[in-house]
Amino acid sequence: AAETKVIPAILDQELGLVEHGRGRRVASPPQRKAVFARDRGCTFPGCDKTAAQSEVHHMLDWLNLGETNLDNLTLTCGYHNNEAPRQGWKARLIKGVPHWIPPRWRDPEQRPRRNYLHHPELVTPRLRASDPGAYP
User: Fold this and answer.
1) What global pTM score does this model have?
2) Are 31 and 18 in contact (CB under 8 A)?
3) Count of H helices and E strands in the chain?
4) Better-predicted residue by pLDDT, 15 or 8
5) Mean pLDDT of 80-109
6) Cα–Cα distance, 75 to 44 (Å, whole number)
């Protein structure tokens, strides 16, 4: 028992695993369903790839101690999963919604941006004018 590791797990009402912590790198089927329902497609601003064309991405990379929990997961297409972090973009959850923070060379103020293409019900003319990150 001295060599065992305690791995915290949180179950939903149907006993599906929704939080893995550091115990597992790959998202569980219930986690994937939750992320697909929330994000609906690649969350990188302006990307039109659907959820079926996307993969689960750790916002804080698992190798850098990011956990496999819903508040650290988002959908990205294969291109943005690799290229966005390489170019200095960082994904963060803001009020339960994935946003991408551009590198300073792209936006010195680093204003968080989100992808509205998979959530057209949220787009209004006022929003388009007030959110410069809505459509790059």
Assistant:
1) 0.73
2) yes
3) 3, 6
4) 8
5) 94
6) 8
- In angstroms, rounded to a whole number, what is the distance separating the alpha carbons of residues 104 and 110? 6
Surface-to-core class of residue 131, CB atoms within 10 Å of its CB (0-12 exposed, 13-18 middle, 19+ buried): middle
In order, the DSSP letters of 66-127 are --SBGGGEEEEEHHHHHHHHHTT-EEEEETTEEEEE--TTT-TT---B---TT-GGG--HHH
Q: Which DSSP category does 65 fall into?
A: T
Cα→Cα distances 95→17, 30, 76, Å:
22, 21, 19
Q: Of 51, 47, 1, 3, whose CA–CA distance to 27 is shortest? A: 51
Per-residue pLDDT band at 119 (split at 50, 70, 90): confident
The three-state secondary structure class of 30 is helix
Given this model, what pLDDT does residue 88 score? Answer: 96
Q: Which residue has the tokens 């190798």?
A: 63
> At CA 116, angle to CA 67 and CA 48, rounded to 5?
85
